[in-house]
Design a protein that fits this description.
Blueprint lengths: L2 H13 L4 H20 L1 H5 L2 H6 L3 E10 L5 E12 L5 E7 L5 H17 L6 E6 L8 H15 L8 E4 L6 H15 L19 H18 L9 E4 L4 H12 L3 E2 L1 E4 L2 E5 L5 H13 L5 H6 L3 E5 L16 E3 L9 H9 L4 E3 L8 H9 L3 E3 L1 H4 L1 H16 L5 H25 L6 H20 L3
Helix pairs in contact: 1-2, 2-5, 2-17, 5-17, 6-7, 8-9, 8-15, 8-16, 9-10, 12-13, 15-16, 16-17
The structure holds NADPH dihydro-nicotinamide-adenine-dinucleotide phosphate (NDP) and (2Z)-2-iminopentanedioic acid.
The site of (2Z)-2-iminopentanedioic acid has 12 residues, from strand 3, helix 5 and helix 15.
Length: 453
């Protein structure tokens, strides 16, 4: 590791102890950026990266609520306002028991570069809570969302900070959060994205992250004069991103064969078709059931329980040309990467944020496969959030065709800029360097223009 990176990382670790995911995200970016910092000493002199690493503001608060039995619960709420150089803070909210400061800081840090790549005027932020929505009634989820917003509303606004969904935060939660914000502020504004279609939401926003990750994979394949038709794909997760990844894969003639949740995964050799996907959507979005039910329902599909003590995930050990990790961070480790490569995988498009460990990423880069890092490949979600903000500001609604065309163009543009940037810095085909450098440069120029603030 270059001395600049090792010194920087020593400082980051000392100042942010125990935040391993944040350290990991910073290290990956810093390693790419040595290429640009060597060519552009003014960035190093102005300590741009050192400033980006320090959140502009971190808000931590109590969210106390009562369950249906009358029992009281105390959760912790967060909003990380990471960087506002190119626009209001923008990024999702995650509700999951694993949520802590380090995880949200890694997500907010990644979001800064991702949002810059979309070409839309959005800064980076992320928030959430260690609240676990699993097994909670709609009324309990509503009470929690209201408690959470009773503090968060002070810190957000359509020109300040615009939250959206992430793990555990979908249409239902966005509705409850928006309702409380509107009541407290007595204002109907575009303060959240992912809103319902009858109250300011944009068509295609629910689909956008999954569609975008597939468009990105297809663009990477085009550089080798190939496409997704007839290719087998492993998909993890069974939530928002996974569902619409599967849908777009089917549309483009690929064969998705897996889905997962925190209990295990299903493998369907015949392929997940539209009818089976409808079943999954009802199972996960309405009944909030377990993915194992898929194997009870469809002949030939196999459910495998995943033992968290195993040092690899058998989902990534099937024969397939493509992988779309769409569940959570670090779900592909070094062993999984070795298994994927051995089984002939040569396209990885990250729907999730940082789903591959540093070891896994290095194996993909060394093998020179088509590897689309999350901050590029999953940017379609936040890009379409940006389109929702634009429609809200203009008080108009675009059609499905219009939004989908814009999403497609944004993904193609992100692909091309990452590809060209990687080439320009002497690492052709390395989309990690391309994404990190292109995202950083845009934010860095804005920070230089705006002085030391
Ligand atoms: P959802 O809550 O809709 O779905 C998450 C899925 O991943 C569920 O199947 C869940 O299983 C599984 N999962 C979550 N955490 C874990 C875990 N620790 N171990 C095993 N499985 C887990 O979330 P999304 O689909 O919205 O998000 C998925 C990923 O995509 C995240 O990394 C998110 O940051 C990223 N992303 C999301 C965007 C969006 O627009 N929604 C945009 C860009 C990135 P279970 O239900 O059993 O917990
Ligand atoms: O990680 C992400 O980009 C998201 N969860 C979406 C953020 C957004 O503001 O739409």
């Amino acid at each position: 590791m270059e001395k600049y990176v090792s010194d920087l990382m020593a400082g980051v670790k000392a100042k942010n102890p125990g935040e391993s995911e944040f350290h990991q995200a910073v290290q990956e970016v810093a390693e790419s950026l040595t290429l640009v910092l060597d060519r552009e000493p003014r960035y190093r002199k102005a300590k741009i990266l050192e400033r980006i690493i320090e959140p502009e503001r971190v808000i931590m608060f109590r969210a106390a609520w009562q369950d249906d039995k009358g029992e009281l619960h105390v959760n912790r709420g967060f909003r990380i306002q990471m960087n506002s150089a190119i626009g209001p803070y923008k990024g999702g909210l995650r509700f999951h028991p694993s949520v802590n400061l380090g995880i949200l800081k890694f997500l907010a840090f990644e979001q800064v570069f991702k949002n810059a790549l979309t070409t839309l005027p959005m800064g980076g932020g992320k928030g959430g809570s260690d609240f676990d929505p699993h097994g909670r009634s709609d009324a309990e989820v509503m009470r929690f969302c209201q408690a959470f917003m009773c503090e968060l509303f002070r810190h957000i606004g359509p020109d300040t900070d615009v939250p959206a969904g992430d793990i555990g935060v979908g249409a239902r939660e966005i509705g409850f959060l928006f309702g409380m914000y509107k009541k407290l502020k007595d204002e109907f504004t575009g303060v959240m994205t992912g809103k319902g279609l009858t109250w300011g939401g944009s068509v295609i926003r629910p689909e956008a992250t999954g569609y975008g990750a597939v468009y990105f994979a297809d663009e990477m394949l085009k550089t080798r004069k190939e496409d997704l038709k007839g290719k087998t794909a492993l998909v993890s997760g069974a939530g928002n991103v996974a569902q619409y990844t599967v849908e777009k894969l089917i549309t483009l003639g690929a064969k998705p064969v897996t889905l997962s949740d925190s209990t295990g995964y299903i493998y369907d050799e015949q392929g997940i078709d539209r009818d089976k996907l409808m079943f999954v959507m009802d199972l996960k979005n309405n009944r909030r059931g377990r993915i194992s039910e898929y194997a009870d329902k469809f002949k030939g599909a196999v459910f495998t329980k995943v033992d968290p003590k195993l040092d690899y995930n058998p989902l990534w050990n099937h024969k397939a040309e493509c992988a779309f990790p769409s569940a959570t961070q670090n779900e592909i480790n070094g062993k999984d990467a070795t298994n994927l490569l051995r089984n002939g995988c040569y396209v990885v498009s990250e729907g999730a944020n940082m789903p591959s460990t540093i070891d896994a990423v290095n194996q993909f880069l060394d093998a020179k496969i088509l590897f689309g890092p999350g901050k590029a490949a999953n940017a379609g979600g936040v890009a379409t959030s940006g389109l929702e903000m634009a429609q809200n500001s203009m008080r108009i609604r675009w059609t499905r065709e219009e939004v989908d065309a814009r999403l497609f163009n944004i993904m193609k543009n992100i692909h091309d800029v990452c590809y060209r940037t990687a080439e320009k810095y002497g690492t052709p085909g390395n989309y990690v360097n391309g994404a990190n450098i292109a995202g950083f440069t845009k934010v860095a120029e804005a920070m230089l223009d705006q002085g030391l603030v």
